[in-house]
Amino acid sequence: MKRRHFLKTSATLGGSLALPHSLFAESSAQPIRGKAEHVISIWLGGGMGQTDTFDPKRLGDPKAKKAGSYYPSIETAVPGVRVCEHLSKMAPFMDRVTAVRTVNHNVIDEHAAATNRMHTGRPISGTISYPSIGSIIAHERGAVTEDAPPYVLIGYPNVTRGPGFLGAQSSYLYLTDTSRGPAGLSLPPGISAQRQSRRERFLASLQASSGETDDKQLKSYDAVIAQSLKLSGPEFNRAFQLDTEPADLRNQYGGEFGQRCLLSRRLVERGVRFIEVSHNLNFINGAGWDTHKEAILQQHVLIKELDTAVAALIRDLETKMLLDKTLIVITTEFGRPPEFDSGGGRGHQGSAFSCVLAGGGLRHCGAWGETDELSKEIVANPVSVPDFFATICAAVGVDYRKNLYDGDRPVPVTDQGSPIAALFG
């Protein structure tokens, strides 16, 4: 072999090895399309440490400043795949789960920017308001049934979860308290059903007198009002009556976060397409998953709470024959480095971190992608945020290759992401 040909061939092969797996997955002309009908997206605000959860490495020591995992690891239902010891309830279900260990982006210093990236799949723009993944799926697929909203947020409202240029019709219905339904669907004190009926007739009269409009924003708001009126009746609101569930099942899910996960299952049954369940920062120590310094001392409580709730959710959905129809997604804004900071906690890391997929009819493998001995760098099968979003979209039947439009401006659904094809049988 001539030297020039050898160098050219070697460069080509070397470049191929560095490419993400997903770039090799799109050989067919047709996009990948899964059969899931719903998404339950669990958001861990603060930055879940991958070495302390789904990508365990050697055991570290914060006092000796030895980098590594904070906890020992355990075996799972998938040979060769280990998780943190505090994920003991999820471990037997890892054959229905894929921990994607090689998600990566370049945002580490700012929680808000990273949260935006992990909801919209893009950097913040000064010229365009991008929609969240929840709003994209709501826009593309709508609700599963006519008597349900397409998108529900169980947590505090935030612009990063919103519809961006897609408009109010693709936004979310939200609640912060599982003991009652969304406040916007309940009649205010003093408003009787008769009085509400008069208000609706008056609104209809006003709308009729204003004539037809081509204003996209006005039409979107009219659609939202109509949907809210339809959902304010007792039928949909029964989804929020958790006390109708058996007490032992509620106990299996655990505390407030677990009750949110139980509610998400009930919303799936009612026909909601996309539900985000937020694990609030103040549930445990005010810092949540942002485990700097002494905040790491309570991290095991968060992990156990996640473990309890998600294992119960998987088991519950499977019992009700809904697991293959429901994609569970666990995301966070970035990971944590294996080194310990001066207070024994961890900083931020975006170069390699874990997000999780479960159910949804995917061909699960326990874990996808490989990081180095300390989970600082990616060794095999990197998954960009657009790739991860494309995998979600493909699972629920959304064309991840198409363009949405902000006026006349085309905006790709996933910023040119490609799904992890190995997860689709």
Classified by CATH, the class is: Alpha Beta
CATH topology: Alkaline Phosphatase, subunit A
Instruction: Return the structural class.
Output: alpha/beta
Percent in strands: 15-25%
Report Rg: 23 Å
| CATH-defined architecture | 3-Layer(aba) Sandwich
Low-confidence stretches: 1-25
Mean pLDDT: 87
Count of DSSP H/I helices: 10
Name of the CATH homologous superfamily: Alkaline Phosphatase, subunit A
The portion of residues assigned to helices is 25-40%
CA-CA gap between termini? 40 Å
- Biggest sheet character: 9 strands, mixed
What is the element string, with H for helices and E for strands? HEEEEHHEEHHHHHEHEEEEEEHEE
The total tally of domains equals: 1
Q: How many runs of DSSP E, i.e. beta strands? A: 15
Describe the structure.
This protein has 425 residues and is an alpha/beta fold. The chain has one domain (25-186, 232-423): Alkaline Phosphatase, subunit A, CATH 3.40.720. The protein is 30% helix and 16% strand. The chain has ten helices and 15 strands. The chain has helices at 3-18, 111-120, 133-141, 193-210, 216-231, 234-237, 247-253, 256-270, 299-319, 385-395, and strands at 38-44, 73-75, 82-84, 97-104, 151-154, 173-175, 274-279, 326-332, 353-359, 366-368, 370-371, 378-380, 383-384, 403-406, 409-412. Strands 1, 4, 5, 6, 7, 8, 9, 10 and 13 form a nine-stranded mixed β-sheet that branches. The chain has a two-stranded antiparallel sheet with strand order 2-3. β11 and β12 form a beta hairpin. The radius of gyration is 23 Å and the shape is globular. The protein starts with a helix and ends in a 13-residue tail after the last strand. The model is unreliable at 1-25 (pLDDT under 50).
